[in-house]
Amino acid sequence: MDTAEIEYWTTEQRVYPAVTYDTPGLVREFVRAVLTGRVAADPLWSALEIVNEMVINVVAHAGVGCEAVVRINVRSDRLALTVQDNGPGAIVWPPGFPAADADHGRGLPMISALASRIQVFTVLPYGKAVIAIIDL
After folding, report:
1. Which pTM does this prediction carry?
2. N or C end of the chain: which has fewer CB within 10 A?
């Protein structure tokens, strides 16, 4: 393959050393700043909803004070959003669907509905990572 044909990912990353209830809003601002003008309005909206839910899950399940790393990888045909934390807890995969009156359990199904693909990982010795891919 001619190396001129290879398209490289552009990567932006931000570390949030101690997440709080304000972190989802800060992450949305970061993602909006990186992607505005680089992707169309619909994938941008999906990306903002996805990272918002990912970081809300970090706050809810890993806990206030844990570290979160948000990574945005983009190229002309695909966008990858990764949120990784160093907190306790495990990801239940595949996600089930919660009862209609449940107070929680809609995050990963919603992310799955908005993304083209989703991957979840346990990060050893502790932590989790969720990667959502959006085809552009």
Report:
1. 0.87
2. N
